Amino acid sequence: METAATPEAQMTTMLQGKRIAILATDGFEQDELNKPLRALAAAGADVDVVSPSRGAIRGWKHSHWAEEVAVDVELSEARPEQYDAVVLPGGVINSDRLRHQPEAVRFVRHFVEANKPIGAVCHGAWTLIEAGGVSGHTMTSWPSLRSDLTNAGARWVDEEVVVDDGLVTSRKPADLDAFDEKLIAELAKARPPAKGRLHAW
Q1: What confidence tens digit (pLDDT) does each residue in 182-195 have?
Q2: CA distances from 135 to 131, 143, 150, 151 (A)
Q3: What is the reported pTM?
């Protein structure tokens, strides 16, 4: 007689076989990268920190520089076709730098055009705007992005987490438990991407 898996065991295998990219650079809000990374890994996903920088990137916590995080894959070598989803942590410095880098915008645009799950927290939506990924979506973000998102065609709401057709958004670090839960649920039900010829951007 087979024994039913415990909830803990089910949780650790929910995302088994999924590969997730977290796109960030110096100035990312520390908890908005670290907490989703830990949650996704605990659910069984393989998670890569992808960055234009090599070696390590330094986080930001509220009003000061914080800890470094190792970069797993340099953006110039990252192949978006190999990933099932992308997560965009916030941080004003991080998000502003990424949205001005064409290579980062092209990386994110792949997930938009392939209709793969995307998670964005706080200011992370800035890069998504540049990638053409917000028009027609209901979203949330840090309040100061409300006009940016509305002008780009999104419907902005003030909620801790919003899910809209695979796009998962949250406002701030205090929302991360809800964000992680909804992101994992979206990833668990998403079908694997079509296998095709891989190429670097």
Answers
A1: 999 999 987 655 44
A2: 10, 18, 9, 9
A3: 0.89
Residue 71's contacts (CB-CB under 8 Å, 6 or more residues apart) are 49, 50, 51, 53, 54, 55, 56, 57
- Thinking of the domain 19-189, which architecture would CATH place it in? 3-Layer(aba) Sandwich (3.40)
Lay out the sheet containing 161-164: strands in order across.
Answer: 73-74, 46-51, 19-23, 85-88, 118-121, 167-170, 161-164
How crowded is residue 99: how many other Cβ atoms within 10 Å of its Cβ? 21
Pairing of the two strands 155-156 and 138-139: parallel
Look at the alpha carbons of 126, 127, 128, 130 in this order and tell me if their dihedral is positive or negative: positive
* Residues belonging to the chain: 201
**Mean local confidence (pLDDT), 74-89:** 97
Picking from 187, 165, 11, 21, the residue whose alpha carbon sits closest to that of residue 104 is 21
Known catalytic residues are 123
Domain ranges of the chain: 19-189
* Mean model confidence pLDDT for the chain: 91
Per DSSP, the three-state class of 46 is strand
Q: H helices within the chain, ranges in order?
A: 7-13, 30-42, 92-99, 102-113, 125-130, 146-151, 176-189
